[in-house]
Amino acid sequence: MEGVVFSIQRFSIHDGPGIRTTVFLKGCSLRCFWCHNPEGMRPKPDIQFFPDRCIGCDECIKACQHGAAIKVDGVRVYDREKCVVCGECVDTCYAGARVLTGKYMSVDDVVSEVLQDRAFYETSNGGVTLSGGEPVLQPDFTYELLSRCKAEGLHTAIETCGNVRWEDEARMMPVTDLIMMDIKHMDSAKHRWATGAPNERILAAARKFAAMEQPIIFRIPVIPTVNDTVEEVAAIAAFVRELIEVRNQAGGDGEHTISLELLPFHRLAGDKYRSLDMDYRARDLITPTREHMQALTEAARSFAVETRSR
Ligand code: SF4
Ligand code: SF4
Fold first, then answer.
1. Residue 42 alpha carbon to ligand 2 centre in Å
2. Which residues are CB-contacts of 239 (< 8 A; sequence separation ≥ 6)?
3. Substitution site in 54, 71, 86, 91 for ligand 2 pocket (most atoms within 8 Å of beta carbon)
4. Domain ranges in the chain with CATH number 3.20.20.70
5. What are 237-292's pLDDT values in tens digits?
6. 266: which of 17, 72, 249, 310 is 20 to 30 A away, CA to CA?
7. What is the CA radius of gyration of the chain?
């Protein structure tokens, strides 16, 4: 069983409790214009090209058998249409200007990498988190990986956008200890404008998760022009409050197992977008101030929802 993985981040402390290894899987069903992992959007491996790092050795041009790395009028050109992502140019580029993002990995390979830090998980109550992209878009691989990690006694978490087939989400639940899920906007038209997809399927998934047992951390990426007003955050907090009631009615402890986290926008991904020939529409947005994040946090807490912000 193989999946397309674009990063394995060890010693992660922001993707669930304790010290964790986060496995990032390629492919996403949303196109959030501020996404800080654009290399995770497309489902297959990609070449990233960083012209600023290029030292002009032309080794990539010699290596490329497909006419994708060429020179036109003395200018080095990378033709993404012709590129077959063979990786030959990456191996010859000592400057690191060409980067292969995403590779096919077996479940065995990922598990053995994850297990290297078992001692840290045990001392910190950490574990493994599957993120992306959207991990549930590779359902067989994700299920197998979560199952193997559970069988090893690890705490497991998934970060999901909820915009996938519910049958696939539900399949993960017996092998998932913690659900982390973004909610970006309660208005479906604005959600579509910001992410490329309406929100109905996402909100329906959130309701179904709430009726289950796993702890859930709902996350709001606070993005100027998208959802950074008190009213917009309050609308999401009111929805999360409803979900707490859903869990309580199902016999759970909604107040202590469902929480909210606010994550301020940071303009960090411009280089990545350029390296992938993607338009970075968030290039002019400004990070919300600490005071504004505090005001949004207070607004969410007024719905009796446990809320943290970074
Ligand atoms: S191999 Fe790397 S450094 Fe050399 S010309 Fe190609 S991109 Fe530039
Ligand atoms: S990945 Fe392969 S096909 Fe694409 S530019 Fe590099 S050498 Fe050429």
1. 17
2. 183, 186, 203, 206
3. 86
4. 2-43+103-309
5. 999 999 999 999 999 999 999 999 999 999 989 999 999 999 999 999 999 999 99
6. 17
7. 21
Instruction: Output the six-digit token pair for 223.
Output: 């993005």
In CATH, the number for domain 2-43+103-309 is 3.20.20.70
- Strand 20-25 relative to strand 2-12: parallel, antiparallel, unpaired? antiparallel
Instruction: Give 49 Cα–ligand 2 centroid separation in angstroms.
Output: 11
On the question of pLDDT at 76 being above 90, the answer is: no
20-25 and 127-132: which strand pairing?
A: parallel
Tokens of residue 163, six digits: 């915009």
Identity (one letter) of the amino acid at 256?
H
Q: Any residues with Cβ below 6 Å from ligand 2, and which?
A: 47, 63-64, 66, 68-69, 83-89
Q: Where in the chain is the domain with CATH 3.30.70.20?
A: 46-101
Q: 52 C-alpha to center of ligand 2: Å? A: 19
pTM: 0.94
Tell me the pairing of strands 2-12 and 103-106. antiparallel
- Do 22 and 129 form a contact (C-beta atoms < 8 A)? yes
C-alpha to C-alpha distance for 121 and 24, rounded to whole angstroms: 18
Nearest-ligand number for the alpha carbon of 95: 1
Residue owning the nearest CA to atom 2 of ligand 2:
86
Fold classification of 46-101 is: Alpha-Beta Plaits (3.30.70)
Instruction: Show the CA angle centred on residue 277, arms to residues 3 and 35, nearest 5°.
Output: 60
Tell me if residue 280 falls in helix, strand or coil.
Answer: coil
Please tell me the predicted confidence (pLDDT) of residue 243: 98
State residue 1's pLDDT score: 87
What is the tens place of the pLDDT at every residue in 120-166?
A: 999 999 999 999 999 999 999 999 999 999 999 999 999 999 999 99
